[in-house]
Amino acid sequence: MGSLSKDPREEVIQAWYMDDSNEDQRLPHHRNPKEFVSFEKLDELGVLSWRLDADNYETDPELKKIREARGYSYMDFCEVCPEKLPNYEEKIKNFYEEHLHTDEEIRYCVAGSGYFDVRDRDEAWIRIWVKKGAMIVLPAGIYHRFTLDSDNYIKAMRLFVGDPIWTPYNRPHDHLPARKEYVETFVQKGGAGQAVDAAA
């Protein structure tokens, strides 16, 4: 891929540093001026991403290839919206509590959109906006949270290696082996990722 070619992920995934406002969690929460985050910076934090064909997820050879390569044997769907999710208000509050998992969190947005927030090495929040066609993998041990955006709807494919375990460990859970491994692999590794100023 040449240096001038556009990354196809840009159309379905955007990331930026969040402000400190306590306004509605479903708002974008850009800093002023906006500070966008590159895919390289997300890679440094262990966050992987792809752009896939959400209209053909049943037969998409690219998704099949990823699942086989990464051992994602389990698959189901989760729809998050007031009409479809029982105890919606309580669940949304729980999703937005900062937490980690002892396994990867794999989400493929097949409809709608939403925000995954992750901590960078300096504990600043990075907001990752996923839209239809975006697939992201949050590594085991990363502190994160999820919320819908103002459209109030996402349908996501959930993938897992083996039998799914969705247990969230709310912060602090720094003693867990998955957290220690994450810190050793991605946080202590160092390296200064650069925020890109929005020049538009």
Automatic annotation (TrEMBL):
Membrane topology, as annotated: Peripheral membrane protein
Residues holding Fe(2+): H99, H101, E105, H144
Pfam families listed in its UniProt record: ARD
Keywords annotated in UniProt: Amino-acid biosynthesis, Cytoplasm, Dioxygenase, Iron, Metal-binding, Methionine biosynthesis, Nickel, Nucleus, Oxidoreductase
Localization: Cell membrane; Cytoplasm; Nucleus
EC class name: oxidoreductase
Catalyzed chemical reaction(s): 1,2-dihydroxy-5-(methylsulfanyl)pent-1-en-3-one + O2 = 4-methylsulfanyl-2-oxobutanoate + formate + 2 H(+); 1,2-dihydroxy-5-(methylsulfanyl)pent-1-en-3-one + O2 = 3-(methylsulfanyl)propanoate + CO + formate + 2 H(+)
UniProt superkingdom: Eukaryota
Alphabetical GO biological process terms: L-methionine salvage from methylthioadenosine
Predominant cellular place of this UniProt entry's protein: membrane
UniProt similarity note: Belongs to the acireductone dioxygenase (ARD) family.
Protein name from the UniProt record: Acireductone dioxygenase
EC number(s) per entry: 1.13.11.54, 1.13.11.53
